[in-house]
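Progress report, Aim 2. The chain analyzed during this reporting quarter is listed below.
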Amino acid sequence: MVDLVSQYEKIKPAVLPLIEDIMSKAQFINGPEVSAFKNELQDYLGVKHVIPCANGTDALQISLMSLGLKPGDEVITPSFTYIATTEVIALLGLKPIFVEVDPKTFCIDPKALANALTSKTKAIVPVHLYGQSADMESIMNFAKANNLFVVEDNAQAIGSEYIFRSGKKQKTGTIGDIGCTSFFPSKNLGCFGDGGAICTNNDELAEKLKMIANHGQSKKYHHDVVGCNSRLDNLQAGVLRIKLRKLDDYIAARRRAAVAYDNAFQGNPNIDIPYRASNSTHAFHQYTLKLNGVSRDGLNKHLTDKGIPSMIYYPIPAHKQKMFAHFDLECDLPVTDELTHQVISLPMHTELEEDQLNFITEEVKAYINLD
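Predicted structure tokens for the chain:
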């Protein structure tokens, strides 16, 4: 699904001296690479504050911890997402309220927000799924009208832009009160282990986020709030600095691969290619097909037999996971349920070559003609 080895070979001349320098100085925690990466990511995103942390799940948890929410408060979020988005809500004693996704973009449907709103609703966590932005203008308008926080899950879409009706463009993850991202190795901007970051333009929230990520400290040995220990280490920050300089090129390579897939599948009645919303660019963390009248599991097995990896993101929606059963939620999410049986993601990364793309697409079409 992701060729990290070939990608590494291209940046190896920059990575090896970096590792040697860090090892020789034994600067492993909160070193200069972390500070430099923070500043460079702020510049890239056009955001006032970046708070690096240990992983994307921590980024979400710390963000919700910073908002002063109380047990039982409700957080609206899509069910069609990776479990990290939703598990941190329950972990903090909050109640997830699962809503429907848009049938074209697969991101949270702003029209579903009003019916989910109660007196206990305090926040919305939209997910920019597969690399494309949710409809942030509609979400922000709803949030402001109802005094709600917005925490963006930007783990799959770093580098993409949302386009407002005015024509203004803004990087995903910088529009809500807080944005969260992951630097898991397979992400568009991935390190060589775990890593994450939190973004905000709110000075007060930034200070609180920094404290929570560092044991609740305002200064050494002064713990003002309950916090946790979540740090991006110096080595990972150094790797991310190297990759950040190439992020736009990486995204461009993904888009070229997506166009090749599009051209191969366009017009096939059994395949819906990824929808491109007019209000968002697409970073193509995943290239996900929606199948019509074709066995998704059968295609998955056919590709596996041909040595082609494919993945199902996601086979079980959050509202059907056992971990949320105690909430006794009543969820009627037909679009979400349908997607869990119809979507399949093909290999998508920066190193895909024409012959590989041709082989993958021909095998997909071969199975669909046989099925």
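The longest helix spans residues 4-25. The first strand starts at residue 49 and ends at 53. These observations will guide the mutagenesis work planned for the next reporting period.
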